[in-house]
Write a structure and sequence with these properties.
Keywords: Hydrolase, Membrane, Metal-binding, Transmembrane, Transmembrane helix, Zinc
Cofactor: Zn(2+)
GO molecular function, one term: metal ion binding
Family: Belongs to the metallo-beta-lactamase superfamily. Glyoxalase II family.
Pfam family, one: HAGH_C
Radius of gyration: 28 Å
Strand content: 25-35%
Length: 515
Amino acid sequence: YRPNGARHWLPIKRLLTPVLYGSPPPTVMALPDWTLFLFGLASVCGGFWICRLFRAPRKSSWKRGLLRDLMARTEKPLFWIAYSLYSRTKLGYMFHKRQMKKAREKFPTGHSRTQPTTINGVKIIPVPVLSDNYSYVVIDTASRLAAVVDPADPKSVQACLEEEGVTLEAIFCTHKHWDHSGGNRALRRYHSSCRVYGSATDNIPGLTHPLTDKDTVDVGTRLRFRAFCTPGHTVGHMIYLLDGCVFGGHSSLFSGDLLFLSGCGRMFEGTASTMLSSLDTVSSLNDDTLLWPGHEYAEDNLLFAAEAEPSNMVREQKLQWVLKQRSQRLCTSPSTLGEEKQYNPFLRSHAQDLHRALGLHQNQDEDWTSHQLFLSGPEDVDRCLLVNSLVTVSHSGREVGEFRVSVQKSSYNEEPCYTVQADSHGKIEDWPCGTSIAASNLVMVHILAQRKKVPENMVFLSFDADTQIALSTYRELGSKKQVVGKELVDVFGIERTISPTGDHPATWHCYFLPD
């Protein structure tokens, strides 16, 4: 997110605390003929007024303020009218061409000074276009073949291709917005054999080869691009990973408008939970992956991140470096995903400092759920792997809850036993973590683990804490090696899922040590 005008917490709160927001569809009703006439007349008058507004002198501060407010407030109806015209009609392309002309007049050599990056025969050249966009020319120096990511300005990209003396084989378009796709058709006229890749769901101009999630495309002998579907900014947004294993170097991620240096894109066509899931896709990639974003937003984004985590020293060091770069109009790309995870607030949704700044922090004991399991003897305790505290994480490493475990001597049905007390807390997308665990079900899981076999379609009926019927299913995860302490041991895994009536299912994985 790039804050325009006043800085506020609403966009990041929507991302970290997903909610459904929007307006209901309008009610369709019949109108008299005279109201239709007046509506048409008002539309024509409004059109003339808007044309006059945009033809006003550029020094008009009230006009700039109106435009800034219109583009910053995505919940306003006027914004969606303007956005629909931009993204779905030829008026958007006409506006894009006007913006290109203005940018060429203002920045004859580009808005930033860039340097190519060469890694083992692969050359990546950022091409500055418009007022803050980047296109990327990626060259296989051995075969002299090239690919382009998001060619917004065909003249600038073509000039780079001619200067390098390479043949354009492929265009990879992250999404449909004209500031990323405006040069697709023009470049195809220059290079008739060039293929245009992107998502079929995003209405990309000039698209010839639709891609789906995790499709791969080879260009030359060293360029292998893998596409990832990352909706949120637009419904069909894609990012492209240049696989470093092919040429023996670091991978490169061309993130379009999903992820910027210390920021992320606006949620034009997706919910906050959708956007967060797409960011999790990025978080799952290697930390040494180079990040090549679609815009030069580094300075604004780092200043915005300073309000979220003012004590983050890594962010402060990066900001000072960026300020020095931008004072000389130097490009701030690439970053690395490892760096971004240290200061980008949209990749740090697990950080407690960020939660406190957004008012999302809770007292530690506020939402703890207690679980008890009675074990009959020390030999049963020995079969359990117990620690003082466990932190559960998602597949991308984001914390989603915590469990505190203790073992005490006790009695059950007047028989001596050990009590395992497990206290849990946490929330996932505003839903409390944790579920009641019945000892009988755990015994069942333990028996299955001893046999190292889970029958197919194994389903049980059980009751939750409110005596509502819940469906329990089990699935075999198989054996694997697991480090316990400092020892590598064999463990057997079982997945258990409980689906309560009218509630969200809960799933966890249990791994058992050998007897």
